[in-house]
Amino acid sequence: MYFSIILLPLLGSFIAGLFGRFIGSKGAQFITTSFIGLAFIFSSIAFYEVALSNSPCYLTLFTWIDSGMLEISWSFMFDTLSVVMLVVVTSISFLVHLYSIEYMETDPHIPRFMSYLSIFTFFMLILVTADNFVQLFVGWEGVGLASYLLINFWFTRLQANKSAMKALIVNRIGDFSLSLGMFTIFYVFKSLDFATVFALSSNFFNSTIYFLTFEVDALTIISILLFIGAVGKSAQIGLHTWLPDAMEGPTPVSALIHAATMVTAGVFLIIRCSPLFEYAPFSLILITFVGSITAFFAASVGLVQNDLKRVIAYSTCSQLGYMVFACGLSNYSVGMFHLFNHAFFKALLFLSAGAVIHAMNDEQDMRKMGGLISVIPITYAMILIGSLSLMGFPFLTGFYSKDVILEVAYAKFTIEGTFAHWLGSISAFFTSFYSFRLIYLTFLNNPQSNLTTFKKAHEPVFFMLIPLFVLGFGSIFIGYLTRDMFIGLGTNFWGNSIFISQINLNLIDSEFIPYYIKLIPVGLSLVGASLAIILYNFFANIILNFKLSSVGLALYSFLSKKWYFDKIYNEFIVQKAFDFGYNISFKIIDRGLIEVIGPFGITNTILNFTKRFSQLQSGFVYHYAFVIFISLTFLIFFYGFWSVIISFVNVKLLFLFILTLLVISFK
Amino acid sequence: MFFKEYLILAIILFFLGIIGILLNRKNIIIMLMSIEIILLSITFLFIIYSVYLDDLIGQVFSLYILTVAAAESAIALAILVAYYRLRGSIAVRYLNVMKG
Do A625 and B23 touch (CB under 8 A)? Predict the structure, then answer.
């Protein structure tokens, strides 16, 4: 049963992808969706058995690589962390499959789409159930591939092509770093199995290795390399540029891959490798800083985006920052809890946004919407639930994890902890501001769309509504229901899957911080939300005037140009890489050096040689006779005097000498 | 017996024939004659050694060579006549149609 959780999506993908022509759109939808549904049911059973009944299990299939000390097998590990991810992945994936049935119904390539969704799910399951780094890497690359295919699903759109390539290439930096991390792990630990590496990690505390000729702390360099991998996949600052662009893909894809599951793979990696990170204090500090800066940066950029999906994408980026700095503060279970909750409300937001886009005839610009509350009230309710949950409205799902993250950040009482706490709190303010800006512009504002579109706008019918309701339910109650299980005091839910060293443990401390500190995030959220509504409703002129003033314009451009990250990357890195690629590696090396030495060089030399050689054949009989005579003379000479000659000369040198004479004589 | 002298004579004849082929640029008939000289010198060597070793096979072989040489010169003359009819000349220096 455990194995079928992983294999069912693959089977569904193969059937839909290879035989989609025979089973048709309906068949492909039915098969993939029902297989994922089965996988979800099995995952729930696995969740009960492994997580609730505390019985982790391993499934070892067969050896994959066996080379010297390197022994890697196809092996699946089901511990608490894995099964939590299994439940998240399969449930969201199932709902997204269901949603896609209606959302993509007019698309001509439904079997391909369903096949891609299922193959993505398969790779994600490989990633979360892997029991060694190499297998995790297979899943890691597989989800990257699936992400590329799905962003590029509408492959005739240039923008989609560009975004897909950007996603793949930016991720490659992280993947490269992850593989470097794997090599270093193998170098240090002589093994890539999670069990071996994690059990041994404490032995290598404070040990050093040479990395690029620098003597560095082994675990620090390993964890930093792994973290850069996570930065790429989880869109942390620096390598985040692909995530907003990935919104070119179909909306269900954004919900599944770029909000709920794939982008959390980086966070999952950090949590999975907690025994390594715990013994590398410096990298924990680094992670905290990167995570909190990401949370702040993405939230601030989200304030001024006009594309409906991009706002939510930056929100995802920001929430990923929260998860990462929660992990950096050694509260892996809290980070995982936020990941779990975030999957629900962010998938809900994306799917509702998809419903809005569907209703507005594929319009994504919020400025051209407005007034939709009277047309699609259910979708409005869903977006409202999602947004409230996202901004941490009391007793909704997001509240339980987000507030705990900020509290443990405060209770750390270190520079990075306080830094993360304040940036996180300000981000909470921004989050609620842009969430309600989105709601106001889309639903409450005066209608800005054209009349025909507005009249045609309608609620989704059936398959799109079910996921919305399920996720809406999840966004309200999941946090309340699972809080004690995930991060309750003394919970034994995680078993051995998460390791927190005693020095870093501060979940208890966070219970004793001043009361007003605990109120800050909620207060800021409420203020932000009200401010958004009030400003946009009553003081739109103020916003406009502020945007037009010189300071306001500079600030607005800074934010709406995404802190100029893309501009800097394009001008200083991408353009240089293009120049190098064209001028040096293409013109000088490929078409220059290699062709001159290789194909052209060899053919020209041989042609010249043969031309000269064929000139020997002059056609005059006496020339031939001369050659025959001379050769015969030499032959007889060597034949007769070989025993004398051999004692004087080296045969190989003689051969070379004759050859050289021959070559020189042609020059 | 002038064995050594006969031998030198044969060798001189042989080299004369070869030099005739190598240095001759004018006439194809001279070339044919040179080939004949080479063959005759070889025949002569066979006969000398046959007498010297008292072995009749050498003389028998010389008869064979004579026969072959006669046939060869007949064919060569036939080619020469055909060539002359074709080109109107028997000069060797124009005999280089088959070059690379």
Answer: no
DSSP code of residue A197 = H
- Greatest alpha-carbon span in chain A: 116
Which residues on B lie below 8 Å from A622 (Cβ)?
Answer: 21-25, 92
pLDDT, tens digit, for every residue of A502-511? 888 888 888 8
Number of inter-chain CB pairs under 8 A, A vs B: 34
> Which of the residues B15, B26, B95, B99 would you substitute to probe the A interface, choosing the one with the greatest number of A C-beta atoms within 10 Å?
B99
Nearest CB partner across the interface for A614, out of B18, B24, B100: B100
Looking at residue A497, the DSSP 8-state letter turns out to be S
Element of type H or E holding A216: strand A214-217
A220, A404, A223, A226: which is closest to A326 by C-alpha?
A404
Smallest CA-to-CA distance from A182 within A145, A130, A125 is with: A130
Q: Under a CB-based contact definition with an 8 Å cutoff, are residues A331 and A424 in contact?
A: no
Phi and psi for A63 in degrees, rounded to 5? Answer: -75, 135
Q: Do B22 and A618 touch (CB under 8 A)?
A: no
A617–B100 C-beta distance less than 8 A: yes
Name the helix (H) or strand (E) containing A66. Answer: strand A57-67
- Spatial contact of A254 and A317, defined as CB atoms under 8 Å apart: no
C-alpha A224/C-alpha A221 separation (Å) is 5
What ipTM was reported for this prediction? Answer: 0.76
Report which residue type is found at A488. Answer: G
Distance in angstroms (rounded) separating the CA atoms of residues A230 and A128? 14
pLDDT band at residue A543, thresholds of 50, 70 and 90?
A: confident
Question: Do residues A574 and A313 touch, judged by C-beta distance below 8 A?
Answer: no
Q: What is the pTM of this model?
A: 0.81
* A179, two tokens: 């593989």
Is the pLDDT confidence value at A663 over 90? no
Å from A632 to nearest chain B CA?
12
List the one residue out of A386, A393, A232, A435 whose CA is nearest residue A320: A232
A251 Cα distance to chain centroid: 17
Q: What token pair was written down for A545?
A: 């005037």
Residues in chain A whose Cβ is within 8 Å of chain B: 614-622, 625-626, 629
Output the CA torsion A595→A600→A605→A611 (10° steps): -170
- SS3 breakdown of chain B: % helix, strand, coil, rounded to 5? 80, 0, 15
Residue count (chain B): 100
**Cα(A164)–Cα(A146) distance, rounded to whole angstroms?**
10
What CA–CA distance (Å, rounded) separates B18 from B37?
9
In angstroms, the CA B25 to CA A233 distance is 85
| Length of chain A measured in residues | 667
* Angle (CA) A479 A98 A5, round 5°: 75
Contact B96 A619 (CB under 8 A): yes
Least confident stretch, A166-180, A316-330, A478-492:
A478-492
Q: DSSP for A612-658?
A: HHHTT--S-HHHHHHHHHHHHHHHHHHHHHHHHHTTTS-HHHHHHHH
Residue range A237-265, pLDDT digits in tens? 989 999 999 999 899 999 999 998 999 99
What residues in B contact A630, CB-CB < 8 Å?
none
From the candidates B11, B15, B18, B79, which should be mutated to test the interface with A, based on the most A CB atoms within 10 A? B18
Burial track A435-459 (b if 16+ CB lie within 10 A, e otherwise):
bbbbbbbbbbbebbbeeebbeebeb
Which residue type sits at B67? T
Torsion of CA A593, A596, A600, A601, to 10 degrees: -130
Angstrom distances, CA of residue A556 to CA of A303, A429, A549, A653: 9, 18, 10, 79
The residue in chain B having the minimum alpha-carbon distance to the alpha carbon of residue A614 is B100
